[in-house]
Amino acid sequence: MDLKNDSLISEFVLLGLTSIWELEILFFAIFFLAYASIMAGNILIIIIVIFDSQLHSTPMYFLLANLSFFDMTISTITVPKMITDFLTERKTISLWGCMAQMFFLHFLGGSEMTLLIFMAVDRYVAICKPLHYTTIMNHQTLIGFVLLSWAVGFVHTISQMAFTVDLPFCGPNVVDNVFCDLPLVIKLACTDTYVLDLLVIADSGLLSLICFILLLVSYTVILVTVHHRSAAGLSKALSTLSAHITVVTLFFGPCIFIYAAPFSNFSVDKFLSVFYSVITPLLNPIIYTLRNQEVKAAMIRLRSRHKKKREVS
């Protein structure tokens, strides 16, 4: 994919969250701490799943470790640039940098979207078909889920970026957001982008909405199935699925509003973009660790193992 030579601009200007210096210093501190927490929390989950034998052999935690990887990388694509921009008066990003940012955002976002669906499948099999769980959710199935999620994310981003990189940009070059995203960048092209706008709505917006509805329906089916079996099982299923439903809502909510709802007020999209790239990856480790006794127990086991190794050495 090559950028057209008739693009007269070489960079985009990002307006960011504010132009008030005092607020930018405050946001710098907040987002720096948030990004550090995102990296620490998600890396901790990955390490626990990899090195704890009980969690490593559990399909749900294998998928959770991959979710943490997606959260980390999505944040890394946007947040470090966002943080450094708080310390600069003129916030710019090169044309290629903007294209790369959009490519990887939709690549990883589409992959995470697919992975969340596979996590719902895992919960359905675990709760509704417990006797066949280990047979269905075997190692080959899990590897297939992860590879398919990467493949779907790649097709998702290529289907949009293949047309976006060919757009001519001759000015203006101001993006009213904290990072480059398709709906705003497309509007700056010096050509009619009506068809491409529809493609983005169909590819990103409707896809997010459909997947979100399907996930909610699947969780409802699980709860209804468990309710018919036993009231006690319903309570346990609710406890297990509440974290998944929260993550799904946090992830798909901003995507649906940004790509499916044509807001005229872009400040709404700006807030949701920050929520999507900072808040959701920050909350996922909290949701899955503070509410999960198995993860807490694994942390204690790893700490004890590390302490014994230090004593031996």
Would you kindly provide a written description of the structure presented here, covering whatever features stand out?
- With 313 residues, the protein is mainly α.
- It has one domain: Rhodopsin 7-helix transmembrane proteins (Rhopdopsin 7-helix transmembrane proteins).
- 77% of the residues lie in helices and 3% in strands.
- The chain has eleven helices and three strands, in the order βαααβαααβααααα.
- A three-stranded mixed sheet has the order 2-1-3.
- The longest helix has 36 residues.
- The chain is globular, with a radius of gyration of 21 Å.
- The N and C termini lie far apart (54 Å).
- The N terminus is likely disordered.
CA radius of gyration is 21 Å
Which runs of at least 5 residues are low in confidence (pLDDT < 50)? Answer: 1-5
Structural class, from secondary structure content? mainly alpha
| Strand percent estimate | under 5%
- The string of secondary-structure elements, in order, is EHHHEHHHEHHHHH
CATH homology superfamily name:
Rhodopsin 7-helix transmembrane proteins
Question: For the largest beta sheet, what order do the strands appear in spatially?
Answer: 2-1-3
Number of domains: 1
| DSSP helix fraction | over 70%
